[in-house]
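so my prof wants the structure for this chain in the tokens format not the other one, which i didnt know existed until like an hour ago. anyway here's the sequence
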Amino acid sequence: MNPLRVTIWHEYRHEHHNDEVAAIYPDGMHRALAAGLAPHGFDIKTATLDEPEHGLTQEVLDDTDVLTWWGHMAHAEVSDEIVERVQERVLNGMGLIVLHSGHLSKIFCRLMGTGCMLKWREADEKERIWVVDPTHPICAGLPEMIEIPEAEMYGEHFDIPPPDTLVFVSWFEGGEVFRSGCCYQRGQGKVFYFRPGHETYPIYHMPVVHQVIANAINWARPLGNPPMVRGNIPEFMR
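here's what i got, hopefully its the right format
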């Protein structure tokens, strides 16, 4: 079986403007993720905002089984044409893993059909991510709780549609809770939102976080089904 083709998309702006972020991710968050996911046997490439067509040409997307997405400070700079291109690929079977502040990306908001806003606070708080569906493939091989020593708090209410499956719930030291692992089906594609990943913490260097994302990539892999036939059918299909 050929390895899953994974494209890691990253805004790649904070590393150029924030020395703290650059110290944690000197080669960029996308390359840290690529290095962490490499042992899982994927065929990995990366793409960033400032590349032509944001690195997401039609050829790249057609050659992608699962796309991961991290954005924050430049959501508005993502071209609507590229968003439509990604949405079409998801509806036709490509998996999409949306990470952390990607909750406000154009592509996630479009696929959810809601505002996708939440509460947040930066206070170096401990986060405990609890597995609430241990039978789900994304939870394979994980402990019942993942502890992030320092994290940005995200709190409810998170303005998203009810997930098809909720696999993780987070607790923070301030007492807030958050739906931090949410699964959706959109068309023939699968979408997973995973909360951790603020740029000023080394979260994407954690092997357990790599395991979650690798599990999500395997879960979101295309099924290989042929395109659905829709619209007016002049003759009954024989």
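also thought this was worth mentioning. The first strand starts at residue 5 and ends at 10.
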